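Revision sheet: structure tokens.
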Amino acid sequence: MNTERLTKRQREVYEFIREKIRARGYGPTVREIGTHFEISSPNGVMCHLKALEKKGLIMREPNMSRAITLATDTPENKGLPLAGRIAAGQLQEAVEDQERIDFSEMFSPDAGDLFVLKVKGESMIEDQIADGDFVVIRKRDTATKGQTVVALTDDGEATLKRWYPEANRIRLEPANSSMDPIYVKNAKVLGVLVGVVRQVS
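Predicted:
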């Protein structure tokens, strides 16, 4: 993005808009911009917005008070990072992708502590987590007993299971009565489950 051709105030307005969109997922109103910069006239704000729009930095929807978006937000910068595919069955090697999944209507897209995994396997179906679903995970290194977590073993294998630390081992419990728990000596929590998203054709 090139802001060199902006005036000082245009650059400040643009940075304010960008900050608001990234912090809360939607743009500021004309009134919010006016209040922040002590511009008493809405027309004064509109002049800056029109200039930014003309220079290709923002886009606005007519008759919608908060419909300011960043024209420079490319698809690869939107959404939550797809961190890989997680075994909801037998343990699998942890992998990481560079793709991003946009669930912005449900989760703030700037939430830096969230990531997405695509589920592979049937071990969590009794918790309504099926093969092919996307799970939204909040990065955490601890979990309470019984929470559904992404756990990583010493062998570098990751799995989505309920977390049950025991006296001298950790029980990774599936939500599938036909499957047995996985017992490991050591495992660490990478994150806890906060949401499940399913594509319905």
